[in-house]
UniProtKB/TrEMBL annotation:
GO terms for molecular function: 1-alkyl-2-acetylglycerophosphocholine esterase activity. GO terms for biological process: lipid catabolic process. Keywords: Hydrolase, Lipid degradation, Lipid metabolism, Signal. It comes from Leptobacterium flavescens. InterPro entries: AB_hydrolase_fold (IPR029058), Chlorophyllase-like (IPR017395). It holds the Pfam family Chlorophyllase. This is Alpha/beta hydrolase. SUPFAM superfamilies: alpha/beta-Hydrolases. Residues 1-21 form the signal peptide.
């Protein structure tokens, strides 16, 4: 029964994805001229070996190849469901790896589609019921359909850390419907896990995939873009920086490094390959998505790259770049409706409002992505790029959303601009600017009516600004800036402590200790920092 109800109900909730072009004329998702076809294969690279920890799997490097492509539109219903994406278990030499990878993906999917369910409600039986119904939802995809005649540009999609390969299936289907060949893979980690690699092993996989695509007459492998989310965005940027296989177009969706300086050790295995490349002389084109608090410091080294930075509000979370996140909220909405309790009415209203605004922002991400690809891979300059303003500074374009508030004497500076001001103008100029824009408060109301920090007054950004001075040995300047933050009720030391605890939780003890040492330069008598550092040192 649940499956039948969901078949009817979920499309109503998911209207922003499929009918935004009709329902919201100010933010158009251009209707796709084609349907999306899908093919899936297991292939092996005999030049490399793989071994999966905790299993008996040791063989030639296997890859699950997923290809979305344009097909003739049809009014006939498609038998394709989300479950179809996971029908890849094979007999023979791929049996063990295909079974293990299917189980991995279903476990990831279960963890990703129930984050809104309270633990008390997410019982095993509820999870099983909703997961099975979710897997049986129909999708507008035609498996193994004949491709449209012609040659189409290629987009390589790389999923993020710990993700399932179809985490952004709507994006892949949408681009296929607009005349792109989208290819993804398992991208198994080079360290022996079933999760994606996002590093040099992925780089080798990308090269293999491009060679594999040459067998298809409809794929134009002379026009290739690589894109990814989170870890996948990092892998995409490494591929771009190293000019892997002549890839000159890259799209990164919140790598998570954007919010910190380039030398942060947590991202060293990502930033080092980029820094060791000829990144300062690299041409090509970059589209980078992140939130308003981004520094974009690594991207700024690409002086000769045609760069586009798109920032989004803080309520658009890390996983909201993925269609999977919207499905998760939709499932919980249906659960609350089905539960039918009056006490849930406000939760339903709040979640529907959040869903509406997040889906609109997701649609903007898709719209800008499509415009960017149309320009860079198809030479179509029309409308490039919706919502973007051109800027004479280093050939960068900015999304209008980056300006969340206007002032008579100019807009509130972006986090990136204030960070650059610190490097070039010094702390006194920064404090003067912060003081001027804090006069009317350090917070504002976002689209959801929530009172949130203006990006330049966010706790993490304030921490990064102070840390930048400490790393350069500018202790007094760091204390001066921290003192000003304290005047406006931003306590930087607390952020040092919370991040150190976070690093400790994930086993990054050396990073945690270094962070605490910097805090003790700022506040030599900080007792909490001393105790935490002592605890970490005793574990050595």
């Amino acid at each position: 029964m649940l499956k039948k109800v969901l078949f009817f109900y979920l499309p109503l909730i998911l209207v922003p994805f499929y009918t935004l072009s009709q329902s919201n004329p100010d933010n158009v998702l251009v209707p796709a001229p084609y349907d999306a076809g899908f093919r899936q294969y297991w292939v092996s690279d005999p030049s490399r070996e793989m071994k999966i920890k905790g299993t008996d799997i040791q063989q030639e490097r296997a890859m699950l190849v997923n290809i979305w492509y344009p097909v003739e539109p049809s009014a006939a219903p498609s038998p394709f469901t989300r479950r179809t994406y996971f029908d890849f278990v094979k007999e023979g030499k791929y049996k063990a790896i295909s079974e293990a990878y299917r189980n991995y993906n279903l476990e990831v999917l279960e963890s990703e589609i129930f984050p809104y369910f309270p633990d008390s409600l997410a019982t095993p039986s509820v999870k099983k019921e909703y997961l099975e119904a979710f897997l049986d939802l129909p999708l507008p995809v035609r498996k193994d359909a004949l491709p449209i005649q012609g040659k189409f540009p290629v987009v390589i999609y790389h999923q993020g850390a710990g993700a399932s390969f179809e985490d952004n299936n709507f994006l892949c289907e949408y681009l296929a419907g607009h005349g792109y060949i989208v290819i993804g893979s398992s991208f198994f980690s080079g360290k022996g896990s079933l999760g994606p690699d996002g590093r040099l092993t992925s780089l080798e996989d990308i090269g293999f995939l491009l060679d594999y695509l040459k067998k298809y007459s409809f794929a134009d492998t002379s026009k290739v873009a690589v894109m990814g989310h989170s870890l996948g965005g990092q892998g995409a940027l490494i591929s771009f920086a190293l000019n892997s296989r002549g890839i000159n177009t890259v799209i990164s969706m919140e790598t998570t490094q954007e919010y910190h300086e380039i030398d942060h050790p947590l991202w060293k295995d990502f930033t080092d390959p980029v820094l060791e490349s000829d990144i300062d002389s690299r041409g090509g084109s970059l589209l980078s998505f992140a939130s308003h608090s981004s520094l974009f410091a690594l991207n700024d080294l690409m002086k000769k790259t045609d760069r586009y930075y798109v920032s989004l509000p803080s309520y658009f979370d890390h996983n909201d770049y993925l269609s999977q996140a919207s499905y998760a909220r939709t499932l919980y909405l249906y659960f609350l409706y089905k539960k039918g309790s009056e006490e849930d009415e406000q939760d339903i209203a709040d979640l529907k409002l959040r869903q509406q605004f997040i889906d609109e922002k997701y649609a903007e991400v898709l719209s800008v992505t499509l415009d960017f690809l149309n320009h860079k891979l198809k030479g179509n300059r029309a409308g490039l790029i919706k919502g973007l303003q051109s800027s004479s500074r280093e050939n960068i374009n900015y999304n209008q959303l980056i300006r969340h508030e206007q002032k008579p004497d100019g807009p509130v500076p972006t986090s990136r601009e204030l960070y650059q001001m610190l490097q070039s103008k010094g702390v006194s100029r920064v404090i003067k600017t912060l003081r001027r824009f804090s006069e009317e408060g350090t917070k504002y109301r976002n689209d959801l009516g929530e009172e949130v920090d203006k990006p330049i007054f966010g706790s993490t950004f304030s921490y990064v600004m102070v840390l930048s001075l400490l790393k350069k040995g500018k202790i007094e300047e760091a204390r001066k800036l921290s003192g000003f933050y304290s005047e406006i009720d931003i306590h930087v030391a607390s952020r040092f402590i919370s991040l150190s605890s976070f690093y400790k939780l994930f086993g990054k003890n050396e990073i945690s200790k270094q962070n605490l040492r910097y805090l003790l330069l700022l506040e030599p008598e900080n007792q909490e920092a001393k105790e935490l550092l002592e605890t970490l040192s005793k574990k050595e």
